[in-house]
C-alpha cells in the first residue's frame, strides 16, 4: 500500500562551467548546509550526471509549497543564488507535489 505524504519537491538541473565543477561542488555544500537548516527543508541531494559530468541535479524536499516559496523569496536564498551564479551556464527548475512514497527494503 502506498502512503500519502505531504511534501513539495524541487528538482534543479544545472549546467556548470566544466572547468569549475570541483569548486561548484565545494561551494554548493557550503551554502547547502544553510538550506538544510531551514525548518521546512526535509533534505536535499546534489547529483552529477553519469554521462555529462558538468550537468548536476539538486533535489530538495520541503514540507509544503508555501514554505518553499517563503524560502525561495528569502534573503538567504538570494545570497545562495549569487554565490552559485558564477559557476552556472544555464539550468531549469521543476516543482512538484509529492503524491506518495514507497520506501525501499532498506528504508
Automatic annotation (TrEMBL):
<dbReference type="InterPro" id="IPR011008">
    <property type="entry name" value="Dimeric_a/b-barrel"/>
</dbReference>
<feature type="domain" description="ABM">
    <location>
        <begin position="8"/>
        <end position="96"/>
    </location>
</feature>
<keyword id="KW-0560">Oxidoreductase</keyword>
<dbReference type="InterPro" id="IPR007138">
    <property type="entry name" value="ABM_dom"/>
</dbReference>
<protein>
    <submittedName>
        <fullName>Heme-degrading monooxygenase HmoA</fullName>
    </submittedName>
</protein>
<keyword id="KW-0503">Monooxygenase</keyword>
<dbReference type="GO" id="GO:0004497">
    <property type="term" value="F:monooxygenase activity"/>
</dbReference>
<dbReference type="Pfam" id="PF03992">
    <property type="entry name" value="ABM"/>
</dbReference>
Amino acid at each position: 500500500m502506498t502512503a500519502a505524504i505531504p511534501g513539495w519537491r524541487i528538482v534543479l538541473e544545472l549546467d556548470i562551467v566544466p572547468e569549475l565543477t570541483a569548486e561548484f561542488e565545494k561551494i554548493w555544500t557550503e551554502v547547502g548546509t544553510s538550506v538544510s537548516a531551514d525548518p521546512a527543508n526535509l533534505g536535499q541531494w546534489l547529483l552529477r550526471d553519469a554521462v555529462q559530468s558538468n550537468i548536476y541535479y539538486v533535489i530538495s524536499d520541503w514540507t509544503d509549497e508555501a514554505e518553499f516559496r517563503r524560502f525561495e523569496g528569502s534573503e538567504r536564498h538570494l545570497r545562495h543564488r549569487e554565490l552559485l551564479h558564477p559557476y552556472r551556464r544555464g539550468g531549469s527548475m521543476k516543482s512538484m507535489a509529492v503524491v506518495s512514497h514507497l520506501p525501499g527494503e532498506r528504508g
